[in-house]
Amino acid sequence: MAQWKLGEVESRFADLIWKNEPVTSRRLSELAEEALSWKRTTTYTVLKRLCDRGLFRNEGGRVTSLVSREEFYARQSEEFVEETFDGSLPAFVAAFGSRKKLSTAEIDELQKIIEQMRR
Length: 119
Prior knowledge:
Elements: H1 8-20, E1 23-24, H2 25-36, H3 40-52, E2 56-59, E3 62-65, H4 69-85, H5 89-99, H6 104-118
Helix pairs in contact: 1-2
């Protein structure tokens, strides 16, 4: 679902919104100019695209999210695992762990997550 895929620049822009919401569209264009060197028209074009995809709302010049950052990245992660590993989270973790050695703290944190999911 393309709704849950953002390019690198769109992700940076979405993060600006999530970090500053609620934010006026005028202030958002100022933030985008500072962070991304965008002109106001670029900000409004990308904002409209993200609003059309159902991620954000711009009502009366006030921009808010319809989907939280956490929910967005959770769904994006689910899609990645589904598309790349046939939906197998263990296959993803095995592939990730084969290239990057997990620290004891990371393993402990994963274990806690697993235990919470068992309850």
